[in-house]
TrEMBL record:
Keywords: Amino-acid biosynthesis, Aromatic amino acid biosynthesis, Cytoplasm, Transferase. 3-phosphoshikimate binds at K21, S22, R26, S164, Q166, D314, K341. The keyword ATP-binding does not apply. Residues 11-417 form the Enolpyruvate transferase domain. The gene is aroA. The lineage of its organism: Bacteria, Pseudomonadati, Campylobacterota, Epsilonproteobacteria, Nautiliales. This is 3-phosphoshikimate 1-carboxyvinyltransferase. Pathway: Metabolic intermediate biosynthesis; chorismate biosynthesis; chorismate from D-erythrose 4-phosphate and phosphoenolpyruvate: step 6/7.
Amino acid sequence: MILEVFSGKQFNEEFLVDADKSISHRCAIFSLLTNGENIIKNYLRAEDTLNSLEIAKKLGAKIEDNGDVIKIIAPKKIKEADDVLYCGNSGTTIRIYSGLLAGVDGFFVLTGDEYLRRRPMKRISAPLISIGAKIDGRENANLAPLSIRGGKLKSFKYESKIASAQVKSAMILAALNTNDISTYIEPFLSRDHTERMLKGMGADIECKMENGKWRVNIAPLKEKLNPLNITVPNDPSSAFFFAVAAAITNSTAIIKNVTLNQTRIEAYKVLEKMGATIEYILKEDKYEPIGDIVVKGNQLQAVEVSNNIPWLIDELPALAMAMAVAHGKSIVRGAKELRVKESDRIKAVVENLKKCGVEAKEFEDGYEIIGGDVKSALIDSFGDHRIAMSFAILGILSGMKIQQAECINTSFPNFFKLLSKVAKYRIMDVD
Ligand SMILES: O=C(O)C1=C[C@@H](OP(=O)(O)O)[C@@H](O)[C@H](O)C1
Ligand SMILES: C=C(OP(=O)(O)O)C(=O)O
């Protein structure tokens, strides 16, 4: 499908975006470790998180969905599925489930779509194999399909070279299925929803910052966790597309009920540095700080980004759209991880910006963008939701056509409805 966006005008609008993807995945997966009925309100009904829920069902959970609240009734024991577990486009699903299933009796096969089957899995299979997991896959357990023969795992002390919440979460779940205390260390704090949620459910997990590194001690599970009763906050990464829309059109976006967790809102801080006025309004603070973000656009200035990269990795493509119209040369470095997301996001950003007449250059670990006039172009989304939505937002300035825009449904099905608040668009069914 092609999404054609027509140029829009200034706006002053409220955005109630879809629920947080990271937290929704964890609700589905962690429910399996509980002893009862998990009540999840505002679960994200997007392709990625529906795949996580479907897998929970295949592993024995009973799901009751009244269209509003989703109840996940945990099985007495996680059961072996009689078919392949399909993770679709979702790295979070395949990696976190692998960590859980490595310690569960049974045989499991996890796979996904053509994009997921190209993404690196060594980052989870290597540490899991080092603690006794039986995992295999193409390229020596690096590419899905992954097969897992679940069984006994050893407690561990593992220091990861990358700050990845998916790897951390996989190892924390594996640690719950061992027989002694394990320690996981990452070089920089990655999003910490797993630690917060599992602690809230009664797991014995201690976290601290030590010499600039994030250290998590995990005790094995003695008994099942307490069921969740949670309202998932909205997703600040999805909302960021509309923050950029406000920033590049001198408009105002009022973003409602998102998590204000520091590991998730760093991109807003960068937009602020570029000249946007941003206000954070904290409304509650239980498992996660939750509130509103008000973004007001101004003339944008170029910026250099090389710190706190794990806290804004998913927002970098959208931020690149702000860089494309900012005054001066912006630089992003230290973001090599962008190359192993749903697409190679460094290549996707730079190639597509060039098509729009913007001067941009690739580095191995980032890019350089010189802000200027943007013209309408036919964008290759490379099947990547964040690339498709970023260029749709840039299209508010002078129009844009985006190929394979159906990928937006993997994370943010309400994007289209909200896009109509800022620009007119049409959808053409054939690419
Ligand atoms: O754990 C999570 O929910 C996620 C972790 C990040 O990936 P990495 O763990 O690969 O950094 C992020 O990019 C992804 O969108 C969601
Ligand atoms: C990288 C992302 O997700 P995942 O790794 O779960 O596919 C994303 O949503 O930008």
